[in-house]
User: Fold these one by one.
Assistant:
Number 1:
Amino acid sequence: MADDLLSQLKTMTTVVADTGDLEAIRRFSPTDATTNPSLILQAAQQEARRARLAEIARHATDIDDALDAVAVEIGSEVSALIPGHVSTEVSARLSFDSDATLARARSLIERYGRHGVGPERILIKVAATWEGIRAARTLEREGIHTNLTLLFSFAQARACADAGVTLVSPFVGRILDWHKAQEPDADFSGDRDPGVQSVRRIYEHFKGHGYDTIVMGASFRNAGEIIALAGCDRLTLSPKLLEELADTTGNLERRLMPLDAETRAPEPQDEAEFRWEMNEDAMATDKLAEGIRKFMADQRKLEALLGELRKG
C-alpha cells in the first residue's frame, strides 16, 4: 500500500508548518514553522492565552514592546516542538524603513535569547521590498538569518539571492488569485498555475547559478500546487493542507530536482533596475502592496486587543 502524500513529501522537501497552533504542530511534526501577524492574531485570540497576554500587555513599555513580546513568546513555544527554525516577522509598518527594520530584528533576536532560543533557530521575516532586502543583507552579515516574505516576482527573488538572504518565500496562492481575477475562465490547474511556474523559475535560477538561498513555496490554495512543487527546498503548509496530504495515499513524484551550477550568477541589480522591473510587473506590485496592508490590518487588530488588556 502506498504511503500518505505527506510522508512521501517529507522525504524530498523540508515541510514547514504555517501556523501558530501548537496542537497542529504536535500532530504533523514539521521540521520548521512560520508565523506572521495574521497567525499571531489567531493564536492570541485563543481563550487559554488570555491571562498570559494580559500579563504581557501590562508589563510592556508600549504596544510595540507588547507585540514583540507576544510574537517571541509564541515563537519560543513553537521552537520547543520542532527541530528546526521558527520564522518571526518584523512589523509590516517598517517595510520601507531599512534602519527601523534592522533595529526591530536585532531586538527580536535579543528577546529570543532571553527565552533560551539561540539565533541559529530563528529566521527573521522581512517584506521583500527594496528597503527590506537591504536590511536583510546587513542582518545576514551580522549572523542573523532572514526569510524574505511577500515575494511575488523574479526581480524580488534575484535581489534577495544577490543579498545573500537565507530563505525566500514565494507566495504561490496569491499569485494564482491575481491571475484568476484577470482571467476567471482560464485553466490554471497543475503546471499551468502561474504561482507554481514562478517558484520553478526561481528554484531553477538559484540552483543553476549556485546561490545558497533556500526556496520555500508559501501561500498554497490547494494540494495540487504542493504536488506540482514536490522536491522544492521547503514548503510551508497550513494545518488544513497538512491534514489533506496526511489523509491521501498514492505515489508522489518528485517534480523539482537539484541542479549543478552551470553558469556564474548575473550582475546584481541596482535599485533603479529593481524598481523598474517591479513597476513592469503589475501582479507583483499589486500583491506586495496588498500583502503589506493585510498584515498591518491584522497587526492593528492585535494592537487593539493588547491595548484593551493593558487598560484592564
Note: The first helix runs from residue 5 to 10.
Number 2:
Amino acid sequence: MTSVLDQLRGMTVVVADTGEVAAVKRYGPVDCTTNPSLVLAAFKDPASADLIASEVAKGRAAGLSAEALTETLTVAIGAELTKLVPGRVSTEVDACLSFDTAASVTRARAIIADYVARGINKDRILIKLAATWEGIRAAEILQSEGIDCNLTLLFSMAQAVACADAKAFLISPFVGRITDWYKKAEGVDSYEPNDDPGVKSVRRIYDYYKSNGINTVVMGASFRNVDQIKALAGCDNLTIAPKLLDELENEVATLPRILSPDAARGMAAVKMDEARFRWDMNSDAMATEKLAEGIRNFDADHKKLIALVAEQL
C-alpha cells in the first residue's frame, strides 16, 4: 500500500505551502503558494542564501529602496520556485492594497512584468489577492487581461460566490483559521473531521462550484492537522505545509475520496452584488474578523520583510 500522500496526489493537486527551496525540492509539489510570512521564512533557508545575497547586491547597486527591493526579492524567490515545480507559483499583492482596486491592479501588473523580464511567462504565475470586494474586482480586471488570480483569505460563501462571478482562476478557503475561530467561540478543544467548521465550509463551496458548473479551482488552505486534509480528499487543490506533508508521507493507510464533481450536492446559484456581499460579510462575524486579522497579519509580515531587507542594504 502506498502512503496517504501518494494516494492524495492521485485525486488532488498537492501544493506546497512554503517558499523554502529545500522543502519544495523534497516534496515535489505541482504548485507553490507564497505570502509575506513564507518569504520571511525563506531568509532562514540556506538554499535561498545565495539568491537573496545576489538580489540585495543588485538592489544596492541600483539604489533601490528597501520597499522596492522587497518587491523584486519576492519575485526573485518566486522565479527560483518556478524552476522546481511544473505548475504555478502564487505571488501576493501587498496586503495594504487590499481595499484599493486600482492600486492592486497596478501592483499585479508590475509583478507580472518583473517575472516576464526574468523570462517567466505569466501563465506560470498566480497573482494572490485578499478576497475583499475591492480585491475581487481587481481580480476580475486582471482575469480579463489573461492574468490568473488566486483569491486568498477566503472564509465565507459570499466571498466564494463573488470570486466565481469575477471568474477568478483559483480561491484559497482557509480551513484552519475558520476552525480556530469556532473553537474559541464555542469553547471546544477539537472537532471530528465531518463536524469541523473549516472542513464543512470548503465542502459547501466545492459543492456550490461543481453543481453550478463553475470552473474556479477550489484550493483548501491553512490546515491544522492531517485529519482536516483527509476530510477534503478529492478537492481540486490542497496547499499543505511541510510538517503535514511529512505526516501524510509517513502514514500508510487507505485514503477514501471524499469530494468529487459527480457527488456534489445540488445548490442553487446565488446572485451576488456589492450590497449583498457587504451585508453577508457583516452578518458573518467569523468571516469579517478573520479576513481583517489576516490582512493585518500579512501587512505586519510585509513590514517585517521590508525592515529585514533594509538591514541587508
Note: Residues 285-312 form the longest helix (28 residues).
